[in-house]
Amino acid sequence: MLLVKPKESNMKYVKNIYILFAFTTLTLTYSCSKQLDRTPTETVYSDEALTNSNAVKKALVGAYTDLGSTYFYGGGAFLYPDLLGATTEINWSGTFGGMTQMVNKDLPTNNSYVANTWLAAYKAINSVNNVLANLDKITDADANASVEGQAKFIRGSAYFDLVRIYAKAWNDGNPDENWGVPLVLTPTTLITDSSKVARNTVFEVYMQVISDLTDAKNLLPATNGFYAGSLTASAMLARVYLQQGDYASAVEEADRVIASGKYSLTSSYADAFPFPNETASAVANTTEDVFAMQVTTSSGVNNFNTFYSPLSRGDIQIEDAHLNLYEANDDRLNMFYSSGGSVYTGKFDNMYGNVHIIRLAEMYLIRAEGNFREGTTIGAAPVTDINTIRNRVNLESYDEADVTLDKILSERYLELAFEGFKLHDIKRLEGNVGLLPWNANALVFPIPSREIKVNTKLIQNDGYN
């Protein structure tokens, strides 16, 4: 059923984000009304010399902040691909031209969101490269391992989403021949010809992603508060391996997260997206948050809230084509409500809610799909994992004979709807986006034109001038 709520308006705080990166320097002013960019320069400045252990640790915290940019893990890295993969299940009514271009699958190379996402990702990468280059300042062995592991988790995660967004899918031709994104593994402070690097292959980027995340898995304690821990790295590895079609490895990593017992599904689906008393407030991670970007009343941003919630801009409405996919008694339907004549998802109504990057539910779905494809029952049979997801939302259990790959994929689609999975799943499953095939050039972001102007070694993606 649909719940009716009055439409409200909230003004967002204006946030000034100053981004400096090796290839370009951009000043970004973020608000709910405008986003501006400036021209590139040739120098990258360090905020602070990393002369001691505390400075390095402080820089690591800063790298998490960089990762959580509105254009990246603050939501943009997941929202934008969802818009690029959107068809009839949502309606986009926003006025930001750059995002309208995503919905229309008509991205110019100077699209500001394409450019700013690239920039935000490499800002985070440069920050952790600076941390990794100064690990010798941390003499305590446990602290050193923790900082290295967290830095490599950030870098591996950033490169994974960069290569998924700006390059052909792993399964689209030969990943050892297709261009990925540039791998920059050392800090850059001054632009020279040697710092202007070419694109690595998709294969090389994925290998670096897996190397970084595996190092993080081995270096970090199982959990680490709301920072990345070993299980967080395993969860991201499960996502990476699933994208590659390496189902056995995906199962192994997902099972490690589930079997640890460190996380549990919330009692209801709504509890996974807390909005206490329907009042905007900062809340702690839920029991099923394996990793979430932290948002408070004074720091962080949740870009899902900005565009999905009618309590903010509310530029994305949910259409019947999506609602009709659910079974009648599915409790997930109660997350949708009518406001001002349109239907919205309530997942992101809390303006200060954390950005849920990895939920435990995803791990059950990865384990179920991987085990089904491999004919294995590592950790649990596929029917058990799917029923765990179904029972939480008040749906009847399947019998083992009823479970098919299509049913597993359907549960995945509905459970993770609007959280940034749609386009990437279409690509790995080789589906379609409307009339476009999964490997259409229009479903890959272009390399930002200003990056190519600064770095002539960069090759543009197919289909873009």
User: What is the global morphology?
Assistant: globular
What is the count of DSSP helices, taking H or I runs of 4+ residues? 15
Question: Helicity level, as a percent range?
Answer: 25-40%
Label the CATH architecture.
Answer: Alpha Horseshoe
Largest sheet geometry: 3 strands, mixed
In percent terms, what proportion of residues is strand?
5-15%
Number of strands: 12
CATH topology: Serine Threonine Protein Phosphatase 5, Tetratricopeptide repeat
Pfam family, one: SusD-like_3
Family: Belongs to the SusD family.
Organism: Filimonas lacunae
Protein name: SusD family protein
What characteristics describe this protein?
mainly alpha; 40% helix; 12 strands; Serine Threonine Protein Phosphatase 5, Tetratricopeptide repeat; 3-stranded mixed beta sheet; 465 residues; 15 helices; 3-stranded antiparallel beta sheet
Outline the structure in words.
The chain has 465 residues and is mostly helical. The protein has a single domain, classed as Serine Threonine Protein Phosphatase 5, Tetratricopeptide repeat, CATH 1.25.40. The protein is 40% helix and 9% strand. The chain has 15 helices and twelve strands. A three-stranded mixed β-sheet has the order 1-8-9, with no helix packed on it. Strands 2-3-4 form a three-stranded antiparallel β-sheet, with helices on one face. A hairpin with a 4-residue loop joins strand 2 and strand 3. Helix 1 packs parallel to helix 5 (141-166), helix 11 (360-374) runs antiparallel to helix 12 (382-392) and helix 11 runs antiparallel to helix 13 (405-415). The longest helix is centred in the first third of the chain and has 26 residues, at 141-166. The termini are far apart. The model is unreliable at 1-47 (pLDDT under 50).
